[in-house]
Amino acid sequence: MAPKVNLEPMTIGVTLPSGDTASAPNLVDELLKQARQAAGAGLKSVWFSQLPLSQDAITVAALAGRENPGIEVGTSVVPIYPRHPLVVANAAQTAHAATHGRFTLGVGLGSKGFLGPVYGVEYPPPIKHLREYLTVLRKVFAGETVDFDGETVQAHAPGLSTVGGDVPIIVAAMGPQALRVTGELADGTLPFLAGPRALAEQIMPHLPSGKRILAAVPAIVTDDPDAVRALAVEQMGFYAQIPSYQRILAAEGVDHPADLAIIGDEKTVLAGLQRYYDAGATDVLVSQTGIRSSEERRRTWEVISSIGS
Questions:
Q1: Contacts of 68 (CB under 8 A, 6+ apart)
Q2: Which helix (H) or strand (E) holds 276?
Q3: Which of 64, 79, 235, 281 could disulfide-link 110, Cβ–Cβ 3.0 to 4.6 Å?
Q4: CB–CB of 189/207 below 8 Å?
Q5: Given a cut of 60, is residue 124 above it in pLDDT?
Q6: What is the pTM of this model?
Q7: Considering Cα of 109, then 134, then 284, then 297, what sign does the dihedral take?
Q8: CA 236, 260, 292 angle in degrees (round to 5)?
Q9: Which residues contact 250 (CB under 8 A, 6 or more apart)?
Q10: What is the pLDDT of residue 1?
Q11: Which residue blocks in 85-175 are alpha helix, DSSP H?
Q12: Which uninterrupted H or E stretch holds 12?
């Protein structure tokens, strides 16, 4: 039995895909099955990532929330480039209605170097675009008329939303300018690979009190930490090529994203996650739990579900 810890009112959730879906004949079926398993394990939230030509995160979150009453669902995260905010707002309000208010929209700037060549659309000035994008989302979610002309966003809706719902917005913000905009226009931030030191020193000071801080943290409970760590080094190296992640890793004092992965037995993982709560996180979202196997994913979820219980 996993050791118990009491971290209320902090909450624990997971991000999907977790790394063990490559052989699934139907990815959506597999993600919904894992969402049911997460809810059954007692986890508080499930968050779905968005990649080009993969599952649509908002749609899957809506389906998962509909199937699992009581659990929070969200996206971690939908890049705002190159999607128009009215399109994202419409999908988000649909998910919010389908889940009776249990959907949270997580958005991010995306990586220019990665997404720019994929879509072939001019990448806008990121901070200005984030501010204008969030402004339009907020107007829609507040039930206001949208008649907006910015430098990067133009939005002129012909009427008010017929779906309704003030959807919470979380931004994957880690730099000071993005955090400043997030503090003004969003409900919180969802940083990935921001270790406890970076969280406390680089993120918390730029957010007003009362904002939600969801730290996405790679963590795997395993009896073979060396083998799992070798996989983490191989599979997480991509993030070391992205400038925003390079900066946040440097702030933590580590060289490789895998250095932040918490890999080991139950005690090791729970102690590692505790450091994020101590640094100021209101939520921890555990990622990469199935990086080697479904068995280790389920074991990890059983262990972390003890948080707050």
A1: 35, 36, 39, 46
A2: helix 266-279
A3: 79
A4: yes
A5: yes
A6: 0.93
A7: negative
A8: 50
A9: none
A10: 29
A11: 85-98, 112-119, 126-141
A12: strand 11-16
- pLDDT of 224: 98
Which residues, 6+ apart, have CB-to-CB distance to 196 below 8 Å? 252, 275, 276, 278, 279
- Residues in CB range of 210: below 8 A, 6 or more apart: none
Give phi and psi for 268, each to the nearest 5.
-60, -45
To 5 degrees, how large is the angle CA 254–CA 304–CA 50?
65
Query: Could you tell me which residues are beta bridge partners of residue 45?
Result: 13, 72
Express each pLDDT in 72-96 by its tens digit: 999 999 999 999 999 999 999 999 9
Q: Whole-angstrom Cα distance, residue 215 to residue 10?
A: 11
Task: Specify the CATH number of the domain 11-304.
Answer: 3.20.20.30
Kindly state the DSSP code that residue 212 receives in the 8-state scheme: E
Both structure tokens of 68: 């699992």
Q: Which amino acid is at 25?
A: P
Give me the amino acid identity at 55.
Q
Q: Which two tokens stand for residue 130?
A: 């984030």
Q: Which residue has the tokens 């009453």?
A: 69
Per residue in 184-204, pLDDT tens? 999 999 999 999 999 999 999
